[in-house]
Amino acid sequence: MNALDPLIRNHVTVCGNPDAPRTIVFSHGFGTDQSVWSALVEALGERFRIVRFDHVGQGRLSSEAFAQHRYLNLDRYAADLVEIGDRLELSGAIAVGHSMGAMICLLASLQQPGLFSRLVLLCASPRYCDDVGYHGGMTEEALRQTYRAIHENYPDWASGYASKAMNEEHPAHFTKAFAASLAAIPPQNALTIACSVLQSDYRAVLPQVRVPTLIIQPRVDLAVPLEVAEYLHSQIPGSRLRVIEAKGHLPHITTPAAVLEAMEDFLL
Questions:
Q1: 6-267 belongs to which CATH class?
Q2: Which pairing describes strands 213-220 and 240-247: parallel, antiparallel, or unpaired?
Q3: Among this protein's residues, is 98 annotated catalytic?
Q4: N or C: which terminus of the chain carries fewer CB neighbours within 10 A?
């Protein structure tokens, strides 16, 4: 295999029950890596074959894997996921994605029909910026300030964002771990990834989704308002929405039992 092999490029790991009839693919969000799914993997590993990976530019990947001009939106990340599926000969897998990773799974399901049989979208957003008749949670000015903060002092921004995203009610070690994970991303990568996420607008493709979809949203999420989850639910045909009693943008880390409970019936 060479450096372009998707299993190397995305540091793909396979675990769980190798004889299970169904496979779950976990797709992490910005600032984290595949390790954030540990609690869910431990709970589901006996029943499912598990595939985890790191998005390029994050996680334990070499800098050579991240060609910035190729990752200016989420479509290339989705193509990476399709390539992983092809390499592993996946068909009808269950995709579980968080934040940007959730939209990447959704886009991959459109790029390669049949790759996934179900989508679980956790804290997902098709557009982060407000628009006429749409509340995404950020103004254009807030977006510019975010880019400026990342560019001028990324470590400070990472620390501040981690505290806000995690929610102050959770133990400090969660925030410290997330801040360290964010800080490990090279600043130039972080700005490109942030732009690819925060400037995205995938509202138009939502009605094209034909895969049964579960949307899981915390009651309080700084990055993704509840209105966004309700919008996703209204636009994705036949989707289900589960609002969990959790606070923060990373409930799979802070309150994994609530996420698992919301998923359980959908996985049957």
A1: alpha beta
A2: parallel
A3: no
A4: C
Report which residue type is found at 121: L
Q: Which of 221, 233, 239, 252 is catalytic?
A: 221
* Amino acid at site 46: E
Q: What pLDDT was estimated at residue 1?
A: 40
Full-prediction pTM beyond 0.70?
A: yes
**Is 248 in contact with 254 (CB distance < 8 Å)?**
yes
Euclidean distance between CA atoms 248 and 135, whole angstroms: 18
For residues 257 and 105, the answer to whether their CB atoms sit within 8 Å is: no
Kindly report, residue by residue over 134-178, the tens digit of the pLDDT. Answer: 999 999 999 999 999 999 999 999 999 999 998 767 778 999 999
Active site residue 63: no
Taking Cα atoms as reference points, which of 108, 66, 58, 60 lies closest to residue 84?
A: 108
pLDDT beneath 50: ranges in the chain? 1-2
Give the domain ranges of the chain.
Answer: 6-267
